Amino acid sequence: CWLFCVLVTLLSLSGKSMGSCPTKCTCVTNSPPFITACSQQNLTSIPEDIPVNTEELYFSKNQIHSLSQGALSRYENLKNLLLSNCEIEVIEPNAFSGLIKLITLDLRFNKIQQLQAYLFSGLIKLQTLRLEDNDITSIENFAFQGLNLTRLNLDRNEKLRDISGKAFHSTKVEQLRISNSSLSSETAEALVPLKDSLRELHWQNNQKPLRFATEAFVGFTFRALKLNNNGIKDIDFLEGVVTDELSLDDNPIGPIDFSRYPNLRQVRKLHLSNTSFSIVLASYFNDMTHLSYLGLEDNGISSLSEDLRPIFMGLQYLLLKGNTLHCNCELRWLKRWLTAESGVNINNGEALECVTPSVRTITSMDDVYFTCSEPVIVTISRTLNVSEEEGTSLTCIGEGDPAPTIIWSSPNGDVASIPPPHSRTLTENQGIFHIRSASLHDRGEYACTAVNLAGNNTVKVHVNV
Fold it and tell me: For 238, which of 102, 204, 231, 305 is 20 to 30 Å away at the CA?
């Protein structure tokens, strides 16, 4: 949009040049930047009488279908070339020869199917190459040979299945976008030649699930690595990742203990929304001392331990919307922290809500509503008879808020501890103690104890052998 606005402003100020200008085009040639605008004119070819001093050529929304060899070679002063929405299907070799000053090449919304070797050869000053929204199926070896790009955009080429291993040979790219394609995980190997230059990789919404090799990103130093919605389940590749920003939104990865990945200690922005990251432990993030942004939306999180407070206080942004927070005594600390001047932008200003035991805004609730209930044992057999060498099980069900830990202790000193479910919407926990082959050594009193933050309750069972 900004290019169009600039163009309109320049044309209104400078007017149409008295020199040569193609029919249906408007030219500004009496003061730089020298512009020729021919967009939306139903042109089927690039006119031959475009002023040779043109620096910016706006040719979008025409029907030229192909770019022939040397079609633009006369315009060696071109810096910006916009050919989007031109129904281009074929680009012949050397179509861009001679454009040694070109900085921006926009080929969006065309019907290009293949990028052949050396297609952009000679564009020594090109910084931005836009190829999104085409029909590209493959990219051949040496397609980008010699380019030194700030930005390469291949987004929304949904038929793109193959990037050849040497497509980026002798190429530098700072930001690469290959989202909404049909690439395989092995495509990461084709990116290896970009290790020294690539700082941002946006590879999102892939049409097939991705499973990266452990060494896929070893040697890269990213400013941002965004891998959202790629069906990623295996995260071993994180061992080799070095980045300031990591985005894994919308992948079914579950909780991640980031202390296992020393290379990620420098991460500043971490996006983990809608990833089934339902358990949030402080130990996962303690080593990430530079973390300033943490996105944990829509993860089914029901509780947050108070030992997360130091981590949250070190953030600038914390996103927790769309979770199923259970506001019992365990979240009283969070309410107090939210109502204090924490200096942290939480949910971009939107209120954080409890889902259970009632739907209310956390900060609107008095402390007395954040309560826990002492556990009770609701199901247990008081006496059990078993024959020698028979197997049996002792079942104890405890109920409380939060659901209690169940601890079984036997007369011979064996102890079994059954932790509660992580979801705070569940108030019961079942603990089973197994006697595999009963002997006289197993007879006596067994104690079942239910324990939570509000207290404990013990019931004893007598086993006769």
Answer: 305
Nearest to 386 by CA among 316, 462, 451, 460: 462
Provide the domain limits for residue 92: 2-270
Domain count, the chain: 2
More confident residue, 246 or 341: 246
Residues 206 and 83 in one domain: yes
CATH number at residue 52: 3.80.10.10
Least confident stretch, 52-56, 227-231, 389-393: 389-393
Can the peptide bond before residue 32 be classed as cis, meaning omega within 30 degrees of 0? Answer: no
How far, in Å, CA of 246 to CA of 124, rounded?
A: 32
The radius of gyration of the chain from alpha carbons, rounded to an integer in Å, stands at: 32
Of 270, 292, 313, which residue constitutes the final position of a domain? 270
Distance CA 348, CA 71 (A): 51
Side-by-side strand order, sheet with 415-418: 383-385, 455-464, 444-452, 405-409, 415-418
In a domain, 354, yes or no: no
In a domain, 300, yes or no: no
- How many other C-beta atoms lie within 10 A of the C-beta of residue 144? 31
393 in the same domain as 256: no
3-state secondary structure of 18: coil
Domain boundary among the residues 225, 243, 270 is at: 270
91 and 67 in contact (C-beta within 8 Å)?
A: yes
CA distance 232 to 237: 11
Report whether 126 contacts 150 (CB < 8 A): no
Q: Is the preceding omega at residue 252 within 30 degrees of 0, hence cis?
A: no
The answer as to whether 131 is a domain residue is yes
Q: Is 368 buried (19+), middle (13-18) or exposed (0-12) by CB count in 10 A?
A: exposed
Q: Which residue has the tokens 């690469």?
A: 176
Q: Following DSSP, what letter does each residue of 220-251 receive, concatenated? A: --EEEEE-TTS-----GGGGG--EEEEE-TT-
